[in-house]
Design a protein that fits this description.
Elements: H1 9-45, H2 51-58, H3 62-86, H4 90-113, H5 120-140, H6 146-152, H7 159-173
Helix pairs in contact: 1-2, 1-3, 1-4, 1-5, 3-4, 3-7, 4-5
Amino acid sequence: MINDPFITIHSVMWLFLAVFMIHDFEEIIFVEYWMKRNYPRINERIPAPARRLVKNMSEVTSAQFAVAVALEFIVFIPVTYLAVEQQNYLLFIGFNALLLVHVFTHLGQSILLRAYTPGVVTALLFTLPYSLYLFYRMINDGLVSLKEVLYYAPTGLILLPIVLLGHKLGKMALRE
């Protein structure tokens, strides 16, 4: 195992929680205002199959969005603990792989709309470099191989029903 004198791999892994929250704070803060202001314009630009999803998102308040984020965060804590303390990397790698892919959804949205979209700034400034460094360190430090990262990555899809449940709970708990 190679030791980095500046930060341990365990510290890098725990930073997942901070990076996730920094990114999602941007989304929580801006999603409601941005959607109210931009929905009519973006509805014209998005592909027809995505319009229903965007319509649902246009009605989400920041508080409702925060419920989904809180549920994800609650799931991420034990998953990170298991990775750091028990060397169980399956879900940790999957969730981080999904977070990395999520960067490109933000970038794609901003390119498609030719505008700022909530989350794109922190996705590019925090999430992208963190994710690349995390996987580099995990592989370089001998915790996992590139093959294992690619093999474990699809487990991140387990997060999708959790996110949907979080949004449903947010809408149920915080109706306007």
